[in-house]
Design a protein that fits this description.
three-stranded antiparallel β-sheet
């Protein structure tokens, strides 16, 4: 009869599985886990009233978001174990599949709209946002494509045709659905990847102007978005007399929530705005609830954690051994940090209402899962390049930038 494995051998095997991965890995992982846990607490607080009114109990929003967190965190850790070669194999399939799902949203009866946008897909009673999946696919695909083109980035044909031809088509599918906020984030992913790949700034000027023009047209084409923008530009939401217009209701109550919090806040769970006064209190405007309940100090902590998250991304980019790892990390950073910047700017009244959630904190299953997968991809780079490709010299790429 064969001898049974002893305890020490088992402990050694487990040690190999959970071995130390390095400072950058744990910096990104720890910051991400903090934001997810903090987000669950704030989702519970901000959604409790609406959940109760929807006959889901006070904990309905937390249980739903917690379920996605319990799926997303292990999925992130599994993704972080995958080698660089895996992302090369799935780059094209992932982009094609997610674009096909987005096509179903805008071209079939399976698409569902909210807030004037058609961005949800309903299959067998399950609703999700394919546009969030396209973001992940772009993170992978841009890293693969630009790594193959790394010695041809001075030729506009090798930049514009793949990135703005294929990647731009993916963005166009989302634009057809009318989701301007997501389109802006996705466009940022494209330009961010090109910038950090080493594309000269003069080559990005024309497509940037075209993108800004397209955003203006998309904004004007929707009466709902145009009303929100004109209200923002005309400062109509600052009037203190008369009836509050529908377009001013959300930003005005968001400002009042922040003002009510002061420096130290009114205390966790004591928000007044969440009592059906502030729409999307657990989603797009959760930062206003953070400001009301935890005050300026809570807001600064959230901002500090996103700065720390950006710092972790930058450190991983700095130590990346391949262009693919560097570009994909940059794309993920521009997506997550850029979206956080836009969301917080909207709540603070810097931007008109765009309808993008606060990454890792706002309620929303699809957004949480895809963001955690994107971070898992970056964590796989932080663990090191396990491919057989030689290392690339990024310093020479940066030196060639105009």
């Amino acid at each position: 009869m064969a001898d049974e494995p002893s305890g020490p051998q088992v402990r050694i095997n487990l040690g190999r599985v959970f071995k130390s991965e390095g400072g950058n890995y744990f910096l990104l992982l720890g910051t991400t886990l903090f934001l997810v846990i903090f987000g669950l607490v704030m989702v519970l607080s901000s959604s409790s009233v609406d959940s109760f009114l929807a006959d889901m109990g006070f904990f309905g929003g937390l249980l739903r978001q917690g379920m996605f967190a319990l799926i997303g965190i292990p999925l992130m850790l599994v993704v972080s174990r995958l080698p660089l070669a895996f992302w090369r194999r799935v780059a094209w399939p992932s982009l094609l599949i997610t674009c096909f799902l987005q096509f179903l949203v805008v071209a079939t009866g399976l698409g569902r709209g909210t807030g004037g946008n058609t961005n949800w897909l309903n299959i067998f009673g399950i609703q999700f946002q394919p546009s969030e999946g396209i973001k992940v696919a772009l993170v992978i695909w841009l890293g693969v494509i630009l790594s193959k083109k790394q010695h041809q980035l001075d030729d506009w044909k090798h930049v514009f045709i793949p990135v703005f031809g294929v990647g731009g088509s993916a963005v166009l599918l989302v634009m057809i659905g009318g989701d301007l906020g997501t389109v802006m984030i996705m466009a940022g992913i494209l330009f961010g990847a090109l910038f950090f790949a080493g594309v000269k700034l003069r080559l990005l000027a024309v497509p940037l102007l075209v993108g800004v023009g397209a955003a203006v047209v998309l904004a004007i084409a929707s009466p709902n978005r145009l009303t929100r923008i004109t209200s923002f530009l005309n400062e109509g939401c600052t009037e203190l007399v008369g009836e509050i217009s529908q377009s001013c209701w959300q930003p005005l109550h968001g400002t009042w929530a922040l003002a009510n919090g002061g420096v130290f806040g009114v205390g966790l769970g004591n928000s007044k705005a969440k009592w059906s006064w502030l729409p999307a209190a657990d989603n797009d405007y959760i930062f206003a609830i953070i400001g009301e309940e935890l005050g300026l100090i809570g807001c600064v902590v959230v901002l500090g954690m996103f700065i720390l998250l950006a710092f972790a991304f930058l450190r991983i980019m700095r130590t990346a051994t391949t262009v693919q790892a560097k570009v994909s990390t940059a794309a993920a950073m521009v997506w997550i940090i850029g979206q956080a910047f836009v969301n917080i700017g909207v709540v603070l009244g810097v931007f008109p209402v765009l309808g993008v959630p606060l990454p890792l904190i706002s309620a929303g299953g699809t957004a949480l899962l895809t963001t955690l997968v994107a971070i898992g991809i970056v964590l796989s780079f932080a663990r090191g390049d396990r491919s057989s490709e030689p290392q690339n010299d990024f310093d020479s790429i940066e030196a060639d930038r105009a």
